[in-house]
Design brief:
Length: 252
């Protein structure tokens, strides 16, 4: 595999136009599992389903959401968190937003096919959330940021984290899950992936760098880390340079 477009240990920006083109293309494709649209592993749909189930099994006992809670899924992709919340939280009021119109269209289709017609989806950029224009008005009992920050440059990560905190209700929770660099920061800049059949851009920060972004955003006094750790067991991780890490925060 070529190392062109792989930058280690250096902070370099990625191009959002390339990222949006990538996701518009993903949203238009059909896969053996709809989960593969944003969770990838195009040639291994069974692994995708195992990862989805494992992640939700980790989060479920930590949520303890009230009935008729409000949830905002930032960078919702195909809306997989909406499917889960609709099954586990009575009367959940769920809104998923994403900058990709193709992904939002697929999310709506998937929700209808699953009988989850109460789920709502809206095209809106994570770095320019307009609270007054959201289909569900804040505050939210749960804000989900799952696999989003790797597609954003540092300044915009800080902006998204601040928005999440502002939109979260007192005593509400924020779920943050990101692929992270194990030893150092790794940036893929228009790196052609044979598996994805497309140029791919992403920033895999270390856990320390993610914690640094939270500090720069000034959120740690307002947010208490409820739990933090590696998400998957070794058999569900495919890469040696990266792994999945998650945080659950509670707002004071």
């Amino acid at each position: 595999m070529s190392t062109q477009g792989r930058i280690k240990g250096t902070n370099v920006p990625i191009d959002y136009e390339a990222t949006q083109a990538f996701f518009e293309e993903r949203g238009r494709r059909e896969y053996a599992s709809a989960l593969s649209t944003t969770m990838y592993q195009d040639n291994d749909p069974e692994l995708v389903m195992q990862r989805d189930q494992a992640e939700k099994a980790v989060l479920a006992p930590q949520l303890q959401l009230p009935a008729e809670a409000r949830a905002l899924d930032v960078g919702c992709g195909v809306g997989r968190w909406g499917w889960f919340l609709n099954q586990t939280v009575p009367g959940i009021d769920y809104l998923g937003i994403d900058f990709s119109e193709a992904l939002i269209q697929k999310a709506r289709q998937e929700a209808l096919q699953r009988g989850d017609s109460s789920l709502r989806f809206q095209t809106m950029s994570a770095i320019n959330i307009q609270p007054d224009e959201l289909l569900i008005r804040p505050p939210f009992d749960l804000v989900i940021i799952s696999g989003l920050l790797i597609y954003l440059n540092d300044d915009d990560c800080i902006k998204v984290l601040r928005s999440a905190c502002e939109l979260c209700a007192p005593a509400g929770k924020i779920y943050l899950r990101e692929p992270v660099g194990v030893q150092e920061r790794l940036t893929l800049d228009r790196f052609y992936s044979q598996e994805l059949r497309y140029e791919y851009s992403a920033i895999y920060r270390t856990v320390a760098e993610l914690e640094g972004l939270l500090a720069q955003a000034g959120l740690l006094p307002a947010l208490r880390i409820q739990v933090s750790g590696c998400l998957f067991s070794a058999d569900l991780e495919k890469r040696t340079e990266t792994r999945q890490h998650y945080f659950i925060f509670q707002k004071s």
